[in-house]
Write a structure and sequence with these properties.
Elements lengths: L3 E8 L5 E3 L2 H12 L11 E7 L5 E4 L1 H12 L6 H12 L1 E6 L4 E3 L2 H7 L4 E8 L1 E5 L1 H11 L2 H9 L1
Antiparallel strand pairs: 1-7, 2-6, 3-4, 3-5, 4-8, 7-8
Length: 156
């Protein structure tokens, strides 16, 4: 099945809950159940959410995070750099439940990290969803527009 692709604008409600876009919820449900979602309502589940260094939030399906977890677990607790990376990764991570309305509750800490007060942009980035404050995303894109061609040329 294809990954998360596309971009949508939404808002967090007064309780800090974020609505996962319907097309992303359908993918999550199909991944979790192995069946289509045409006649199903009220899918619940959970996601891993991580504070990213670029001040965004990243949402991962459990199956995707499991692969990352294995890589992180293989790092040595006796190597100071590897131990630091483990600490930084797990300090930035939480598990959030998807309620029957397709929302996840974001903690105040996570909202503040991303500078989110109300409006958000969710970017489908194949194996994850990236949640941005719209102005912060716009700033990052504008600051890096000229770098796109060089980056694409280096990796493609």
């Amino acid at each position: 099945m294809s990954g998360f692709i596309g971009k949508e604008r939404h808002a967090v409600d007064e309780k800090g809950r974020l609505m996962i876009p319907a097309r992303f919820r359908r993918k999550l449900e199909a991944e979790a159940t192995g069946v289509g979602t045409e006649n199903r309502k009220g899918f619940t589940g959970w996601l891993y959410i991580m504070k990213a260094p670029d001040r965004s939030l990243e949402l991962y399906e459990p199956s995707v995070w499991d692969g990352m977890r294995k890589t992180i677990s293989a790092l040595s607790d006796f190597n100071p750099e590897e131990r630091l990376l483990k600490t930084l990764m797990y300090e930035s991570l939480e598990i959030v439940e998807i309620d029957r309305q397709g929302r996840v509750a974001l903690s105040k800490e996570f909202l503040e990290h991303a500078g989110i007060t109300r409006d958000i942009v969710i970017v489908g980035a194949d194996t994850k969803m990236i949640v941005w404050d719209p102005q912060r995303l716009s700033d990052v894109l504008m600051e890096n527009t000229e770098r796109f061609a060089a980056l694409a040329g280096r990796y493609f």
